[in-house]
Amino acid sequence: MMAFRRRKSPSGRAMGGKMLRGLWLILVVLCGGMWIIIGERMDSALDGSLDELLESLVEYAAPTVLAEIDAASSPGREQDRLSFFGRETYFEAYAEGSGKILARSPSLKRGQNLLGHYALKKARKRDDGWNIRIKDRPIRCLAHEIKIPGMTGRDPEKALLIVGLDRIQADRRWKEIMIRSGAALFLLLLTAGFGVWLVVERATKPLRQLVHEVSLIKPEKIKPVSVPQEPDLAILAKRVNTSLEAVARHVEKERRFSGDVAHELYTPIGGLRAVVDVALHRARPEPELRSALEQCGAIAVQMQDLVANLLNLSRLEAGAFDAAHEEISLADLLNAIWSDLEPRASLRNVSFENQVPPALIVSAPPALLSIILANLLSNAARYARPSSRIGAAIGVMDTSIKLRISNETESVPRDLASKAFDRFWRSDSSRNRTGLPPGEGSGLGLSLARAAADAMQQQLDLEILDGNTVCATVTLQRVGGFL
Amino acid sequence: MRILVVEDYQPLARSIVQGLRECGYAVDFSFDGEEGLWYAESNDYDVIILDIMLPGVDGLSILKKLRAKGCGTPILFLTAKTTIDDRVEGLDSGADDYLTKPFAFRELLSRVSALVRRRYEKRSPHLQIGDLVIDTVGRQVSRGGQGISLTPKEYGLLEYLARRAGEVVTRSEIWEHLYEFRSEAISNVVDVHISGLRKKINQEGMPPLIHTRRGEGYILEARAIDAENAADPKS
Description:
The structure holds two protein chains of two kinds. Chain A is α+β, with helices and mostly antiparallel strands. Chain A has helices at 11-73, 120-125, 168-215, 231-280, 286-318, 330-346, 366-383, 416-419, 445-455, and strands at residues 89-95, 101-104, 130-134, 137-148, 157-166, 326-329, 351-354, 361-364, 389-396, 400-408, 460-465, 469-480. In chain A, strand 4 (137-148) and strand 5 form a beta hairpin. The longest helix of chain A has 63 residues, at 11-73. Mean pLDDT of chain A is 81; it is low at 78-83 and 430-439. Chain B starts with a strand and ends with a helix. In chain B, helix 6 (152-163) packs across helix 8. In chain B, the strands form three sheets. Chain B has a five-stranded parallel β-sheet, with helices on both faces. Chain B has a four-stranded antiparallel β-sheet with strand order 6-7-8-9, covered by helices on one side. In chain B, strand 7 and strand 8 (140-143) form a beta hairpin. The longest helix of chain B is centred in the middle third of the chain and has 15 residues, at 105-119. Chain B has nine helices and twelve strands. Mean pLDDT of chain B is 85; it is low at 226-235. The interface between A and B is medium-sized, with 28 and 30 residues.
């Protein structure tokens, strides 16, 4: 019955409990129905047996009854008591035509008759018996036609002999059997229900444990579930853990990203506030105020660029950029991007050697390709060793090319290859590198480039060559012109 | 008072340095962790303002190295990291205070002032030597109820002497605590500033408060007039 007790339970137990209740109820209904049907059949069989007994009784009773009738019609003749008709047996004889009672057993008192609610005519037509109650005693009756010898000179008459048998003992036995069988069946159902519940409880315990552990998982607290010993559940638990690990990494990554975004924005906001606070701290001449405002403007531009990069990253990951391909001259695009970077790079004597054939045409979404190349080149310019050269070269495959942009650096961080594409990762904590304006190097450039490459369904990798040379490789679809 | 600022975000660093100098502090600064560590190890600062995310050596590492060497200079962390864990880590590592970006410059100023008071074990924001009263929060000076107007450098010098009132302060100590690392070395600049300060606070009819100890330095204290004449004819 524990399966039916209402409790606060994990969904697994509730589900199992409902199933068990449902199954148990179905079983109870089926068994109950069968018990009733069997009871009815037994009752019918009992009636049948009684009818057979009554038929036998009729055979033996008929001559005696006839004799009784004859004695009754012949005054002076002593009526033979139907001694073998004990208290449990009854008879009545009805004249066919008139319905007059010709003979009755002594066990029938005045006002009692075996017809019960049946009419004589109906009783005549029945092949089987019927049940009546006389003073709360159940009686089984059976009708049989007999011929009464006629009076001298008269034709024999037909009479209907109804014999009855007290069935109270039989009924009691039947009831006893039914009660005992019912009780046994009930106990059996209880035991079976308990047994099934126990088996199901034990069998589903690992599953419920797993469901319970999964239900406790929250986004802020993701921990692996325990692996059961059952092979099927073990596979399920391991799959769940694999998914949880991925979710945990993603949640951590998003949490870290949110923290990084706040951190990255707080720094220029802190700068803005400090510039304004100090400017307002005392009365100042106009040139000083102008200088402070110019600083604020530069910081605002930096924040604008940061937010723009974040939005671009978000849009790239959402697939919101136009991915329609156009034919682009790769060499021209590289040169155009470098022309924006050259003034600052030249301060450190960093140059760019573009070895991409001018005739080479690639097919790519222009906006996405520009994001990739602009970030790769600006990264190269930022970290290139002074007086070094940034190189752009290609490797040819069947329908694609690999564009390689390489630069020498003063030192290569150990975790560059694994972390370079992480958001807000910088080779050191610097926000002001190699003389470039404050705010450059937000740590989003390579993340943007990777996101753009993913949107183009192309590959972008970073590798370290010869110790201090960093090479970024992006695969592009070739259209024509080249060799 | 001499302060070191180590912050790699230049607009912020320059603003802090400018604001502190205008308040009379001598301020050295660096945009780099390694250089900042060198500054901190080479000079005795009254307060060090340290960013956590620095190129080269990060702020927490700088703090731990300084504390390992027994440096007790009060250190105030500046950072954009706002979580409780970050703050606890910084303070548990030995920082004396923690200020998250963005912040009001006035708040930075107050915290620096509090750290300076703590360093010299003068808890009250008011310093009094005789009838000279210095309000270190409002940076106001008065004597005998009369306000005295001082330049930022003069105020810084007076506050330093007042925090060490009754002690002899050498010229080199004054130099270290009131002038930036890159200041031009002028041999008698301290004497010039002391002279200017004396003229302003030694009002007519009032006993002098800044006394010269020949061969040693200067001392700020209130003395009886007879004892004053016997001890220091020059003042």
